[in-house]
Amino acid sequence: MEHAGNPPLAVVTGASSGIGLELARRCAEHGFDLVVAADERRIDWVAGELRRTGAEVTAVEVDLATAAGVERLHKAVAATGRPVDALLLNAGTGTGGAFVDVALGDDLRVVDLNVRANVHLAKLVLPAMVTRGQGRVLVTSSIAADLPGTYQSTYNASKAFIQSFALALRAELEGSGVTVTALMPGPTDTPFFARTPGMEGTRIDDGPKDDPVDVAAAGFEAMMAGDERAVASSLRTKVQHLGSRLLPDSLKAELNRIMAAPRSGDS
Question: Is 151 a catalytic residue?
């Protein structure tokens, strides 16, 4: 994927911690230069760490839940003067608790970041990939995409959208030289639960979690191979995903209720 004497360029959103940080590390370790984005100052520290691999790294502190933030990130990418070889759409957030109790602004932020921002950035980056006939896209979905999200209604719905979006883009772009891969983690040991109101103290939060290093490794490998999806990373997560595709929706909704109900971890 090298061109014009430069290493390939990857853009990673949500790269300040968790799965996004580990995806950025994987890219750097495999010869990519990077544009990394997140909504916190820590992204500058991350960029400094990634540069130790020899990668050229641009850090962009930006709120992608706004259209202006997405445009600003795209301008920073364009300012490198280089085409994007890999687009890793990983930024996301969530809410927990009963829908009627969650603040409207919190639910709409989930929609803005998990749905709108990914569509917006893909719309800005993908046409040039298709014109070049070369590129890889990784979309961080979730095994929650197949589950009616009782007490996580907006979050699970956002992941269902992005999963369907990724699979549809993949089908549309078949034969174009651009591949789209969906990364489907289960519960992962990241700051997500601490940052998500209503999720701390649930059975999901208190239960076993996958290592983000392993999740990112599986996602990166699948992206580079052009695979349709990577269910990452433990056998437990793979079994949960299989069950979510086979069980009736009513049962899946009840199981999600048991796992995500506020303070369910206390029982």
Answer: no
